[in-house]
Please model this.
Amino acid sequence: MERMHDRGYALITGASQGLGAALATELAGHGFGVLLVARSAQALQEVARQAGALNGGRAHVLTADLFAPGAVEQVADRVHGLNVPLTCVVNNAGQGLWGRFDGLGLGDQLRMMHLNMDVPVELTHRLLPLLKGAKRAYVLNVSSMTAYTALATMAVYGGSKAFLLRWSRALRAELAGTGVSVTAVCPGSIITGFTARAGMQAMDDLARKFGSGPGPVAASAVKAMLKGKAEVVPGLLNRITAKAQGWLPDSLNEKVANGIYLKRLPPEEKGQAG
Ligand SMILES: NC(=O)c1ccc[n+]([C@@H]2O[C@H](COP(=O)([O-])OP(=O)(O)OC[C@H]3O[C@@H](n4cnc5c(N)ncnc54)[C@H](OP(=O)(O)O)[C@@H]3O)[C@@H](O)[C@H]2O)c1
Model:
């Protein structure tokens, strides 16, 4: 790793566990102070302790429930109030829901859309003036490989991640020349508590077989971000898959992916799908 120097502060949403916690320690190891956002205060304190051991103790916990109305504005106000040099915003907090669109609760899906799309947009909009004040700054958006292919059983989740990727690319073009670089990371399966929380235990065997731990994904994402890349798919196998999907027609990609996912629905839901 390059010699550590002070790179300002990175705010990371969803930093209490999984990929967000790994991104926080990775960024701390690269010299960023960290501002850690999630609901679980105790888990955030532990991540702050680990990150602080790597960056000279520059770690703040900002406990917030980003589902709550006004929460993003409150987080942004607290960041402005801290008066630290903000140089990086990582839009990582996200949630999945697995199942047929009409079998999943409408309220649950709308909440997920809010967390996966509205929160990154609002947070970035509110914090961009601080980023623009820095000589070099970054936005890292955590999308997903599901952004590349419409996916039955994850219709709304996949749509939310496709939105994030498109928004990320366009924002990057708009900010060219300002010193703020925008990167999207599109991971495949990461072994975290995500699948259990998304109700997709039926896919766990595939996730275990082809998935990666959050550490290597975070390392790949931060490396791409610091190099100013537009997009990164962590992991060689995932990169090959994404490239191949780009060459093949969407209809074929979707037929293959939908087949794998629909097959794993519980029998009562599979009947409806057929
Ligand atoms: N795991 C995968 O296979 C995979 C693959 C591709 C992309 N991704 C994306 O990677 C990102 C991180 O996923 P992960 O696997 O690390 O998931 P995870 O282990 O479930 O972690 C999600 C994080 O988001 C936080 N969060 C959830 N709801 C929140 C809320 N209302 N307010 C504040 N924070 C909230 C959680 O903290 P609290 O519960 O403490 O609030 C937690 O820190 C997500 O955007 C996900 O879509 C994951």
Remarks:
- Strands lie at 9-13, 33-38, 59-63, 86-91, 137-142, 180-185, 231-232.
- The first strand starts at residue 9 and ends at 13.
- Residues 14-20, 38-40, 43, 64-67, 92-96, 115, 142, 144, 187, 189-190, 192-194, 197 surround NAP (CB under 6 Å).
- The chain has one domain: 9-273.
